[in-house]
Amino acid sequence: MQYFTDFKIHKKILSQLQSAYEKNKLAHAYLFYGSEGTGKEATALELAKLLNCEDEQSKPCNKCNVCNKINKLNHPDLKYIFPISSKWKPEDISKRNSNKSQNIFAPIDQEGVTNISIDKIRELKNETKYPPYESKQKVYIITEADKMNRESANSFLKLLEEPPDYLTLILITSSKNVLLDTIRSRCRSIYFPRLSNDESMEVVKNFHPIDDKILKVIKFSQGNLKKVFGSLEEDYETKQKLVLTFLRAAASGSAVKISDAVDDMFKKRDKNYLVEILNLIILWFQDVNHLNTLNEEKTVINFDFITELTNFSNAYSKSDFEQIINILEEAIQNIKRNIYAPLLLTVLALRIKESLIKK
Ligand SMILES: [Zn+2]
Distance between alpha carbon 340 and the CA centroid of its chain, in Å? Predict the structure, then answer.
């Protein structure tokens, strides 16, 4: 028997699951935890398929009826639970499901998403009374399990105490500590480490041909696949342009240029978007710092801007780039604290100007 031949990440975790499966020692409740975008949901689907795949040579085969239905999140014995927003209509929920069924690694718009409601948990519990409809094992995946409020969590606890034999529960979280102790202690915990660039590439190549732009997105996403797919969806070029315009304006010290650059950045009026742009500016300065101190081109992340980076690094080689990175990190904290962004960005530009020392 071959196992998980199509799944190229988290080989260690897979072999752990495989060996438990062969010994008939899989747990009835798992807690998959680790930082965002490490493929926890995708691995949960692999486990669901392993338990139910009809193929006798290779599990999961990704060809049989069961595997196909699970991959499409459309199997009657698979329940996929996630927090929703009270403003969502039924079509918003089906849209979320359809996005995830096309790419389980894709990020989800979190606007207004609050919690996993007690009603949803009650519905789940009610469902568990019946054995599987079509397959061997029912699998319930509860994603962002930390978003169960106290009421939902307590209700869920009853299910964890005595799950029927035909049920496997998989809780997923990137904030393990928010979960109730009583929930954590009843699950077998599996930690998901950050993905390497090679692992990220293995996943991404199933959706996009790998080119220089994608390689760069993978590098700056640092093992977070949600970030990778989010960046590929959103206009990556636009963001890079904002970064360069802001840096040029800051370096010029011109009030008009700074004011225009700040207006452009704040057009979306989106705090998270600003944080992303500032993180890209930090990457820019990290690159400049690498070039300046190590003179190593191969560690540079923004390799499509190597000329601009080299010019910048040469022009301001006497600057304390680490200090500038600190200033940027401070600005990110302040944006998260809801300080008025246009003012903050203007001050930031001036502080960067102050710290840039020409050769
Ligand atoms: Zn199969």
Answer: 27
pLDDT tens, position by position, 245-302:
999 999 999 999 999 999 999 988 888 889 889 988 998 998 899 888 887 777 788 8
Ion ligand 1: protein residues whose beta carbon lies under 5 Å: 53, 55, 60-61, 64, 67
Tell me the domains of the chain and their CATH numbers: 2-193 (3.40.50.300), 234-355 (1.20.272)
Cα 47 to averaged position of ligand 1 atoms, centre (Å)? 12
Q: How many C-beta atoms lie closer than 10 Å to residue 277's C-beta?
A: 23
CB 80 within 8 A of CB 135: no
Residue 191's DSSP bridge partners are 33
Contact between 59 and 198 under an 8 Å Cβ cutoff? The reply is no
Calculate how far, in angstroms, residue 68's C-alpha sits from the geometric centre of ligand 1: 7
Say how many Å lie between the CA of residue 52 and the centre of ligand 1.
7
How much distance in Å is there from the Cα of 141 to the middle of ligand 1?
19
- Rounded Cα distance between 62 and 49, Å, is 8
Instruction: For residue 197, report the distance from its CA to the centre of ligand 1, in Å.
Output: 29
Distance from the CA of 27 to the center of ligand 1, in angstroms?
Answer: 21
pLDDT digits (tens, 9 = 90+) for 22-52: 999 999 999 999 999 999 999 999 999 999 9
Residues 6+ positions from 177 with CB-CB distance below 8 Å: none
- In the chain, the N- to C-terminal Cα span, in Å, equals 65
Q: Strands 78-81 and 2-3: what pairing? A: unpaired
Contact assessment for residue 242 and residue 248, using Cβ atoms and an 8 Å cutoff: no
Q: Could you tell me the distance, in angstroms and rounded to a whole number, from the CA of residue 191 to the centre of ligand 1?
A: 26
